[in-house]
Amino acid sequence: MTSGSGSSHEELLERHYEFRLGAYLSRGWEIFKANIGLFIAYLLVVGIIYAVLAGIDGAFAGDDNTVPRLGPGGAIQLIVNGPLSAGFFLVAFKIIKQQRIEFGDFFRGFNRFLPFFLTSLLISALTVIGFVLLVIPGIYLSVGYLFAIPLVAERQFEPWQALEFSRKLITQQWFAFFGFLIVLTLINIAGIIPCGLGLLFTIPWSVCAIAAAYEDIVGIVSTSD
Question: Which tens digit of pLDDT belongs to each residue from 51-67?
Fold first, then answer.
């Protein structure tokens, strides 16, 4: 696996890379296992936050028990989703760099709130538009933007730059990434079976597997941060 990359962004887009699904799952498990307790604790915190926000929207349900399409809870979730999602990657990248991890590192996405918020918002908006336009564009973009948040987290790309770089890079091996996401989905479906407790392991593992793919294909820039 690549631990650092001196390649320019243009060189990364031009070079051919090999997609190694099994290696990413294995490496992802190693990253997750390096601090399994903190990953699970953070997932629980995120789950509680989303549950509370869903409960807020439930309080606004109408007489027919219909919940508003985007109530206050949903609006807040839309705002915090980017930084919260970034937390998994920020910690995974610190583990890859063999740096010391603290629980507060998961919340460092809020230190760069605007880029993560805008990236997440653009991904959601463009993917929804893509699904409205005959579905296939939405599927293409949902896969193509897989590295967008990691690029903002690790290389501090601007939101649109991250989306376009991720899309162009992943398009080279789009079907391999599509299969990768199907495998991760099946893993998480299996995690639901034991009363949902398996998701405490499968969700962080899945994110770490994506971080492992990023590490191998894009490369991690070695920094002291």
Answer: 999 888 777 665 555 55
Q: How many CB atoms lie within 10 A of CB 12?
A: 16
Residue ranges making up the domain that contains 87: 20-217
Does a structural domain hold residue 6? Answer: no
Question: Distance of CA 144 to CAs 9, 73, 77, Å?
Answer: 17, 28, 23
Q: What are phi and psi of 155, to 5 degrees?
A: -110, 0
Tell whether 224 is covered by a domain: no
Res 63: pLDDT:
54
Residue 1 is predicted with a pLDDT of 46
pLDDT the model gives residue 56: 85
Are the beta carbons of 171 and 146 closer than 8 angstroms? Answer: no
Cβ atoms of residues 24 and 213 within 8 Å:
yes
Residue range 3-10: average pLDDT?
59
* CA torsion angle 86 87 90 94 (round to 10): -160
Does 117 fall in a domain? yes
137 burial type by CB count under 10 A (0-12 exposed, 13-18 middle, 19+ buried): middle
